[in-house]
Backbone:
């Protein structure tokens, strides 16, 4: 018998907090219904990953502001700051849209229009500039719509100093002054891109390189916010092909603004040769941005091999799974270090005070979590590799990546929590599996999801899209498993039961 129990559709993960960053999608029918916005499924999804599912507190905040301002029949997206609202309003380009503010909460209001609403949602998702659920909760308390905030442990000291110090120690080569906090990992990526682009564009450098298949919103930033994407955006899916990368730099090096990658990539857990890529970037005066979130900077040492690192603190650092936050860490030895220190404060969105206090209260748990997942992951990988119904397994020490990964691993035991794999008959396995099933990773709770269905459903459901996935080496039925703090035997027993 599995030690886990099937979670009902829509249950928050973790349960017991309104600020959970994941929610249960227990069957493939639920996954597909969620993606296709089937009311039979979505009515159960009262919350989800905050950049994708509008939190009930945000809905209530928006409704209250519109009613207070007499804007009946309008819609509103609450934003993380007045500056974010102004930027969103300008980007929408809708004459009737306006920046509004009520009791210290800003947003963009517009006459009800599904297209404008969807475009605003997409922009906020990509840039990470949506209002925090805790800030919305506090607004509702101030205006009398809620009696009190949800009780939870918080840090009583100077939370920013505690978090910055912990992040600097994780990256090892940085001081707290090199750490810039953002209200989400995605906002950290966006702010780093904006700062780098603003440095390079006056020099006539507009071309950005995406190395590997990256997280969907990182891809979207490069697709939508480069000057002329058809000319200024190049994708190299094969992270191991240094010859192709050198050829690209040899032919277009004078145009290249920067290169962005993940270490390892999401979801194929592939690690490029960081030192060789950074040497190439330095030789051609291109800016190198790398994201170590999948493995955690506690497992890999990347800062000496990049100009800036971007990191989602929602993963591992906020191991309870109830805070959205991110960080940008500047390599103090980068030739661009002073420029980034100057520009980043004006580009990123700060973490809301209660989110920061909540993050500071749990940040001390991250070392123990990383140590635990490093002990558990090899046993789970071995089980999957040897099971006849498992077709492919990707992890940090996959033969294609092993040498590159070990060059930057903190120790031979720094395996990381992430494993991707494919099985015979995805739907049968997924529906039978009792592990928690939902988006996100890096929690004390193990989480599994059919990642391609959740992140790229548009590609899964079209012939052209499936061809794109195949060209990038991605199986639409890939599962992404994040190991939590549970015993290895319990995780393996749950997998074995579903594979039986």
Residues:
């Amino acid at each position: 018998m599995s030690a886990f129990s099937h979670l009902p559709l829509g249950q928050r993960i973790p349960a017991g907090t309104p600020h959970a960053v994941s929610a249960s999608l227990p069957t493939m029918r639920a996954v597909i219904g969620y993606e296709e916005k089937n009311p039979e499924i979505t009515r159960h999804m009262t919350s989800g990953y905050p950049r994708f599912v509008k939190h009930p507190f945000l809905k209530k905040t928006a409704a209250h502001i519109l009613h207070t301002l007499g804007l009946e029949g309008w819609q509103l997206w609450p934003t993380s700051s007045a500056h974010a609202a102004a930027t969103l309003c300008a980007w929408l380009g809708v004459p009737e849209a306006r920046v509004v503010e009520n009791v210290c909460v800003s947003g963009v209001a517009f006459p009800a229009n599904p297209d404008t609403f969807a475009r605003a949602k997409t922009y906020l998702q990509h840039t990470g500039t949506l209002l925090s659920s805790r800030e919305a909760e506090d607004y509702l308390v101030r205006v009398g719509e809620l009696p009190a905030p949800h009780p939870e442990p918080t840090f009583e000291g100077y939370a920013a100093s505690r978090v910055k110090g912990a992040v600097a120690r994780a990256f090892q080569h940085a001081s707290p002054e090199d750490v810039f906090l953002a209200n989400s990992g995605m906002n950290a990526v966006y702010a780093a891109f904006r700062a780098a682009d603003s440095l390079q564009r006056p020099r006539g450098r507009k071309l950005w390189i995406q190395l590997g298949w990256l997280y969907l919103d990182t891809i979207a930033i490069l697709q939508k916010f480069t000057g002329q994407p058809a000319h200024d955006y190049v994708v190299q899916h094969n992270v191991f092909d240094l010859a192709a990368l050198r050829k690209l730099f040899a032919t277009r090096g004078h145009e290249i603004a920067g290169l962005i990658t993940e270490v390892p990539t999401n979801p194929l857990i592939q690690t490029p040769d960081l030192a060789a890529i950074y040497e190439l970037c330095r030789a051609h005066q291109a800016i190198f941005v790398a994201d170590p979130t999948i493995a955690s900077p506690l497992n890999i040492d990347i800062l000496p091999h990049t100009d800036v690192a971007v990191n989602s603190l929602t993963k591992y650092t906020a191991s309870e799974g109830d805070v959205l936050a991110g960080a940008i860490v500047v390599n103090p030895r980068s030739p661009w270090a002073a420029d980034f220190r100057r520009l980043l404060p004006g580009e990123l969105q700060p973490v809301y005070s209660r989110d920061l206090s909540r993050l500071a209260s749990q940040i001390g748990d991250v070392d123990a979590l990383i140590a635990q997942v490093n002990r558990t992951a090899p046993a789970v990988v071995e089980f999957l590799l040897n099971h006849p119904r498992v077709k492919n397994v990707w992890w940090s020490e996959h033969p294609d990546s092993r040498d590159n990964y070990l060059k930057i691993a903190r120790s031979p035991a720094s395996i990381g929590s992430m494993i991707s794999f494919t099985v015979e008959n995805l739907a049968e396995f997924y529906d039978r599996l009792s592990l928690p099933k939902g988006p996100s990773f890096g929690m004390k709770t193990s989480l599994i999801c059919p990642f391609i269905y959740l992140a790229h459903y548009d590609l899964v459901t079209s012939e052209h899209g499936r061809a794109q996935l195949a060209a990038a080496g991605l199986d639409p039925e890939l599962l992404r498993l994040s190991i939590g703090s549970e015993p290895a035997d319990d995780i393996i027993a749950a997998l074995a039961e579903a594979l039986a």
In short: The chain has three domains: 56-131, 159-363, 366-499. The longest strand covers residues 105-111.
